[in-house]
Each structure stands twice: as structure tokens, then as C-alpha cells.
Amino acid sequence: MLDFKVTLGIDSLLILLTIFFSLGLAVATWRIQQRNYSARVCLVLIVFTISLLALMFVLQQELTPWRNAVYTFISLQMLLGPLVYLYTQVQTQEAFKWQNRHLLHFLPVVVMATLWLWQQPLRESDPFLYSLVGNGAEEIENHRLIHKIGAWISLIAYSIASLHLLQPHVSNMKSKFSELSEVNLNWLKALSWSLLLMTLLGIVIDIARILGAALNFDGGNLQALGPLINIVLIIRYGLHQVDIFPKEVQGTLAEPETSTPIPDTEVPSQISEKKYLTSSLTSSDAARLWARVQSFMQCERVFLEPGLKISELAQQLDVSINHLSETINGYARLSFYDYINGLRIEEAEKMLSDPAQAHLSVTDIGYHAGFNSNSTFYTHFKKHLGQTPRQYRDNALVAAN
């Protein structure tokens, strides 16, 4: 049926194995039903796009007579940037909703694919022909400069846009979480940087070839193959990425169910009435809520729960997440993250200086205090007290003796 031979090299076989593995990953990702639907759609499409681009690379390498047709699908390079950007929006914007205008991000892919089909068959009169490379098998690239530039602009612009969205993300998460390891999206930042740097490297390679450098690959190949590296990031982190934004807990500023009266709390002088002018939370309600929070922490000691979220605390207090966040920020002058971890450090400090707890290791004390990783415990302890937990314990026990 075919009038040419198909010979798969080792590199093509490895790429095909990676493709099959990636597609299996996409199916597994889709089957995780508890995952945010929008996030699942984006992540599956990212993996599918990377796999399809790699497959197109193999086809245009191995099936030379099909190269012109295959290049139509190489336009999917311009799909990768928008998908990463939209996935970043899903993960960083609590109110994100799919809208028809989002389809405009995919329009350049259709335009470039249609443009390539319109250019067929390739001819000397092609208005998009630029004689930059003209040696034998690479003649086809003379017709693809505008496609390359389009892919460069798309990947650079969307990578930068994604990094821009991620820049304030950690600070925003500190208002909602006491532990950031599952929500910091560092892997997504690495993915965006990887796309950006690979694109810039591809531009350098193409410019070098235009200037006469004898290279066996070009920027287009790098853009098609390079993202396969990012499969490692998606496997290790993207597949296990939790839903970041909990649903708002609706509630009232009800009095705590306790027979012990809550003392009247005056609004500190540093808390301005203006802080609550744009909120449904009044300054007097905030003062009462702050007293409840402090009492609840002393009695229930919920800060010892690893991974405590502000949504969970708000549910236990039967109050709004936003009101609770405003109150902690206004009175403690700290984010929820720093407030809870500060209480944990105080607890660890007491345990480390207590001779009765000497049988516990420093790591055990960190876990008892509510930290779910040893590195996080050490980082926070040294930040608050200027020394490691082990140094603090040694000094405290020496002082006690």
C-alpha cells in the first residue's frame, strides 16, 4: 500500500513509548472525579497536545512524503500556551468560569492551520515564502517563517501571562491555608518557565541556522519535543494537584456554645473603622469574632491539626470565611498561614523546653505541634526564634539544669 519504507529509529521508538504513557496519564487524570472539572479538562488537553505534537514530529521524520500534511498539525504548538494559561487561571482565580470568550485563545491555531493548507502545494509564488534556509530537505522551512513567529509569540506571551498570574498566588494562599505544599503551584511555575525558556532557545537555534550554522534540528523540533520533559512535572505534581478553592462557608456571627462568658473586647486603636467600610463585617462584630477565635484556639487547640484550612475553622465557628480572614488579618496583623504557624511554634517552644518531653525527638515535636513536614517546622522555628529547634532545646535544657 505504501510506496516507501517506514524505519523507526531508536529515538522515534522512545518518543512513541512516551506518547502512549502520556495518553495513559491523560486517561487516569480524567478518571479522577473529585478533581475540579475545568482543571481536569485543561490538564488532559495539555497532555494530549504535547503527545500529539511529539507524534507529528515522529511522522514528519519517518514518513517524508507526508511532511506537508503533518505540518498542518504542528500548528498545535500555539495551543499549548493558551491551555497552560487557562489552567493557571483555573487554579489561581476562585471565581473562574468558562465563557465563550475563552474560545478566542484557540483561534490562532485554526488560523495558522488553515493558512498552511492554503499554501499547498508549496510554490515559488507563495507570498509567505522567505528564502532564509534553502538547502534540499529543509526547503519546506522557507514557507514556514510566519508559522514559527506565530508560535514564538504565542508561547512567550502565554508563558509570561501565566507567570504573572502565579506571582501573587502564594501570598493569596496564606490567607486560606496553614500549609502550602499542596497549593503553592511551584510545579506550574516551573512548567511555565520551561515553556518560555525552551521557546527562547528555539529562537536562538533558528537564528543560528539562518546565519549558516550547520545544525540537524531547528526551533520547531524543539517546541514539538521539548514539552515532553514537562510530562515529568505533570506526572509528579499535576496529577495529584488538589482543588485549591473551597466553597464559601455560610454562617453567622453566633455566640460560642460555652458557659464561660466572653469578655467584651475593645477595638484596638490600630484597627481603623475604615477597614470594614467595604465589608458586611462591622468593627464590633470583628472584635467579638476575634475574642471567639482566641478562646477557640485556647480551648480546642485546632491549630495542632496538620493542614488546617481557614474554611474548616470557619465551619467550626459557623462564620464566613471572608469575615474570619478579615478579622485575623486586622487583629493579629498576620495572614491565616502565619497566625496558625505562629501558634504551632509557641506550642513547639513549650514542648522543647519541657524536660518531661525529652524522650520525644525534635521531629516528633514538630508533628505534635501541627507541622506536617520537618523542613517546614525548621523553617518556621528559625524564622521566629533565630535558631533551630535542636539548638533551642539544648539551650533550654542547659538553662533548666
Please tag this protein with its features.
401 residues; mainly alpha; 58% helix; 0% strand
Number of strands: 0
Largest sheet: none
- Tally of helical segments: 17
Which structural class should the secondary elements be placed in? mainly alpha
Distance between the termini: 90 Å
Q: What overall geometry do the principal axes of the alpha carbons give?
A: elongated
Percentage of helical residues? 55-70%
Strand content: under 5%
Return the string of H and E elements: HHHHHHHHHHHHHHHHH
The poorly predicted ranges are: 248-274
Overall mean pLDDT score? Answer: 82
The gyration radius over C-alpha positions equals 28 Å
Task: Summarize the structure in short.
By secondary structure, the chain is mostly helical. It has 17 helices and no strands. Helix 8 (186-210) runs antiparallel to helix 9.
Secondary structure blueprint with pairings:
Blueprint: H1 10-30, H2 37-62, H3 67-73, H4 77-92, H5 107-118, H6 145-166, H7 169-173, H8 186-210, H9 219-225, H10 230-236, H11 283-300, H12 310-317, H13 321-331, H14 336-352, H15 362-368, H16 374-385, H17 389-400
Helix pairs in contact: 1-2, 2-3, 2-4, 3-5, 4-6, 6-8, 8-9, 11-13, 14-15
What would your notes on this structure say?
The protein is mainly alpha-helical. It contains 17 helices and no strands. The radius of gyration is 28 Å and the shape is elongated. The N and C termini lie far apart (90 Å).
